[in-house]
Amino acid sequence: MSPAEKKPAKKAAKKSAPAVNEAALYDFISAPMITEKATMASEHNQFVFRVPLDASKPQIKLAVETLFKVQVTAVNTLITKGKLKRFRGRPGRRSDVKKAIVTLAAGQSIDVTTGL
User: Fold this and answer.
1) Whole-angstrom distance, CA of residue 8 vs CA of residue 6
2) Which of 3, 35, 59, 102 has minimal Cβ neighbours within 10 Å of its Cβ?
3) What is the mean pLDDT of the segment spanning 27-42?
4) d(Cα 67, Cα 31) in Å, to the nearest integer?
5) What is the pLDDT of residue 21?
6) Strand, helix or coil for residue 25
């Protein structure tokens, strides 16, 4: 047998997104962030959400598209490190926060003030 005959054929199967029930999608979006900067971003069809630290971009995109029934074009994430603060004279640390900036397709919108 030649070496070419011993190698198994490569499969070109595309991985699809795993099926997730709708209740589990609520775990990927904690809360909308309503700040001055987030309000200015909403004028450019971008919305800011607080998400868990272990949430990935495809999970966030799937959750927003399914829960709000919109088309997402991009997801950008950032992690804000917690500050060292003092509480009653004792040093403490705020929690790290992950934010997702979700850009929607033209003509789509989310009303984050009313909730789900």
Assistant:
1) 6
2) 3
3) 92
4) 13
5) 79
6) helix
